[in-house]
Amino acid sequence: MRKNYNSFLNIFVLLFYSASFTQTNNKWISPVDFPIKLSGTFGEFRNNHFHAGLDIKTQGKEGVKIRSSNSGWVNRIRVSLNGYGKALYVDHLDGTTSVYGHLKKFSPKIESYLKKKQYENETYVIQLFPKVNELKIEKGEVIGYSGNTGGSYGPHLHFEIRKEKGQVPINPMKFSFLIKDSKRPQIQNFYLYTNLGSKLEKKEFKLVRKNDSIYTTSGIISAGNFYVGLRLFDRQDLTYNKNGIYSVKVRSNGVEKFFYKMDRMTFDDSKYINLLIDYKELASKRKRIQLFTLHPEQKLSFIKDNSLKGDINIDKDKSYQILIEINDYNQNTSYIEAYIKGTVKKEDHIQTTYNLIDPVKEHLFEFEDQKVFFPKKSFFSNVNVKIEKKGDTLIVGENIYPLRKSYEVYHKIPKGDSIGISQSFLSFINKNGDATFFSSTIKDGYWYGKSNILGKYVVSRDSVSPEIKKINFKDQQWLSNYKYLKLNISDDFSGIKKIRGEINGRWILLEYEPKNKSLIYDFSDQNFKKPLHKLEILAEDQAGNKTVFKTEFYRKPK
Predict the structure, then answer these.
(1) pTM of the complete model beyond 0.90
(2) In CATH, what number does 467-554 get?
(3) If 425 and its partner were Cys, which of 199, 211, 383, 440 is the partner (CB 3.0–4.6 Å)?
(4) What is the 3 state secondary structure string of 144-171?
């Protein structure tokens, strides 16, 4: 009975503390010490995903102090070579989690905790989940320093706020961060599309700017069922970056046809992002046209009314006013007034048939030494894909259709030179016509891999081992006053797969940054009793070629 009473008391105290915390500590603060400038907004369209937070510019620098926007405790620490790079997740008593990505390093207490675990597990790439309150964080406390780690293309902070339950991203703009914005969204092009799925067709109507907020256009189009496509962007006052919009509303003759607002989203939403763009236009011309329609296969959390599918029916000899309202979070608004008249219905264009792939079925295409397998639901709708073999090249269609699920590519491993075969793998031909590493996985006598884009494949060989060079020191040099050991690592083709470093036979933490091919060892990590240090680094590429780098240097023991 006493035990149950204590449990009840603990729960009561926690709930009371949580309620008090929410009432007194609900004002969030900026994670940076200067006016926020955005290079990315919440819900913005990115390649194959919706942006789940804000990208905050860090004055073009790494090493800028990053502060926790609210009090709480570290729930997760992650270090990876892609994605968010070095990232920190902080839980708060109001049921939210804040996320800080692409950091250069963490604050000393977090860095100490992390390195201890990295050395215990002998790995640089790691994911940790500290216990509740093991690493307490105060609001405004410096938790790390800005960087460019992971899938980042310049120094900045990726900042998210999530609902802790389910890890659902919430628009951080809802938390009253001061971001100056008096600029309306900009609209570049207006289209009407027909034929959902693999047979997209569009007609552009030239826009005329009527005033600061209204664009207008007019024209005629063959009768049929249409939906709106736009090229557009938004900017804030302090930056020239082209960012995403917050909400859109489409009406036809006063009747609402489509609406969404980016207050929150789920990570599952990104599965359907390629149905909200003209995928062919993006893949072939790198031009992103956003489509305001609800595909039958879409399941999007930020679209609340699934009856508003965006379809606008235009009849022969009838006139329509299409009114589009585009907003940013601060309710700066731009409008399009389009006056469209229907004419004779156009006959459907008959597309040349290659291999018709019905997403309801599995499809296997086999050649003498190659095969391609599409599982059920590989595509969102029926598509015509030309699958053929030309010489040594396997052609799996053209990258003009978005995939719902990855397909499988196989190439039979030939008999013969075992060394040559061990150095070979499947390559994907990129847009520039260059072969890039795809997969060296072996399955039932085949090189095998999964892909989520259509294209061409060949077998390639990489016989050159990775190269490691000294950057800030020389052989036999005294390095007593050095803070870091810096090296460069590169591979000419397949890419680095594995790195292991040791000093005097003891594993060391080498921080690897693929973008600048750097390897860095922090001398403060460990103490060595002798002045002579024997450094050895083993590097292996994706084709299995290995390099053993050895050198010696001197450093005065502490």
Answers:
(1) yes
(2) 2.60.40.1220
(3) 440
(4) EEEECCCCCCCCEEEEEEEECCCCEEEC
- Counting Cβ atoms within 10 Å, is residue 73 exposed (0-12), middle (13-18) or buried (19+)? middle
How many degrees, rounded to 5, is the angle at CA 307 between CA 268 and CA 346? 105
Beta-bridge mates of residue 539: 499, 547
Contacts of 434 (CB under 8 A, 6+ apart): none
The enclosing H or E element of 18 equals: helix 2-24
What CATH number does the domain located at 355-461 have?
2.60.220.30
Contact 71, 25 (CB under 8 A): yes
In SS3 terms, 248-305 reads as EEEEECCEEEEEEECCECCHHHHHHHHHCECHHHHHHHCCCCEEECCCCCCCCCCCCC
CATH number of 16-175: 2.70.70.10
Strand bridging mode 333-343 / 214-222: parallel
Q: CA–CA separation, 475 vs 253, rounded Å?
A: 78
Contact yes or no for 525/509 (Cβ under 8 A): yes
In 23-151, the DSSP E strands lie at 38-40, 45-46, 49-50, 54-57, 65-67, 72-79, 86-91, 96-106, 126-128, 136-137, 142-146
- In sign, the C-alpha dihedral spanning 512, 518, 519, 521 is negative
Query: What are the distances in angstroms from CA 141 to CA 70, 106, 129, 401?
Result: 9, 12, 20, 47
Are 227 and 292 contacting, i.e. CB atoms less than 8 angstroms apart?
yes
Handedness of CA 282, 287, 288, 293 (dihedral sign): negative
Domain residue spans of the chain: 16-175, 186-343, 355-461, 467-554
End-to-end CA gap in the chain: 57
Encoded tokens for 44: 């913005």
In 445-495 the beta strands, taken as DSSP E runs, fall at 446-451, 455-461, 467-470, 484-490
Residue by residue, pLDDT tens for the chain (558 residues) are: 444 444 443 444 344 434 433 433 468 999 999 999 999 999 999 999 999 999 999 999 999 999 999 999 999 999 999 999 999 999 999 999 999 999 999 999 999 999 999 999 999 999 999 999 999 999 999 999 999 999 999 999 999 999 999 999 999 999 989 999 999 999 999 999 997 766 788 999 999 999 999 999 999 999 999 999 999 999 999 999 999 999 999 999 999 999 999 999 999 999 999 999 999 999 999 999 999 999 888 889 999 999 999 999 999 999 999 999 999 999 999 999 999 999 997 765 555 567 889 999 999 999 999 999 999 999 999 999 999 999 999 999 999 999 999 999 999 999 878 888 999 999 999 999 999 999 999 999 999 999 999 999 999 999 999 999 999 999 999 999 999 999 999 999 999 999 999 999 999 999 999 999 999 999 999 989 999 999 999 999 999 999 999 999 999 998
Q: Is 528 exposed, middle or buried (0-12, 13-18, 19+ CB in 10 A)?
A: middle
Amino acid at 538: L
- 67: helix, coil or strand? strand
